[in-house]
Amino acid sequence: MRHKVNKSRLSLSKSQRKALMRALARSVIINGRIKTTRERAKNAKPLVEHLISLGKDGSLSAKREAYRILQDHSLVSKLFKEIAIKFKDRAGGYSRILLFGRRRGDGTEMALFELSELIKEKKPDSVKKEKEKAKPIEEKFHKMHPKKPLEVKEKEELMPLPKEKPKPAPEEEKKHKKMEITDKKKTHKKFLGGLRSFFKKERDSL
Q1: Helix (H, G, I), strand (E, B) or coil at 34
Q2: Which secondary-structure segment (H or E) carries 101?
Q3: Average pLDDT in the 63-81 region?
Q4: What's the longest Cα–Cα distance across the chain?
Q5: For residue range 99-149, what is the model confidence (pLDDT) as tens digits?
Q6: In terms of CB atoms within 10 Å, which of 22, 105, 179, 201 comes out highest?
Q7: End-to-end CA distance of the chain
Q8: Strands 109-115 and 33-37, how do they pair?
Q9: Which CA distances in Å does 68 have to 62, 73, 99?
Q10: pLDDT tens string 13-47
Q11: Cα(144)–Cα(154) distance, rounded to whole angstroms?
């Protein structure tokens, strides 16, 4: 009998189910959004919301309890310093489940399990550097032509060209080629000369 059992057991033992829920909670805190089955998302939702409420509490005992679940100090600090701040004005409903169809093969219902206040991702340094490089070129162009918009081709023309290696003169190339040919001939002569001396020694010994 399934009295007072609201959630499915996911065909797993208690220890396996517990480990799965913790892994899902970790991945939601790291990424902000995960793709999983509807049943798994429903099972993991109370744990994620409990972690966020611990983050809002901010006490030492709350940190210890969060570490007992997450087992990672960096994730605990992210939960308390970044994620919990986003939900200060909310009294609940920190996460949501969005259904988007069935999985091909076994037909299980798939869902997006995400935090309701998604954390904005930081741009990589390479994108920032490229933008900083483009700024002085645009400023020069706007000084010369204040009303004209800067096009892509004009940007390429203003960009400094990469430095090419100086090509050697044709006379030097000819010298190098001659030197290579003479070296090959010398090695060939030495080889034949060695054979001749060997055969001479054999002939004299007879």
Answers
A1: strand
A2: strand 95-102
A3: 95
A4: 111
A5: 999 999 999 999 999 999 876 554 555 556 556 665 665 565 556 655 555
A6: 22
A7: 109
A8: antiparallel
A9: 10, 10, 31
A10: 999 999 999 999 999 999 999 999 999 999 999 99
A11: 13
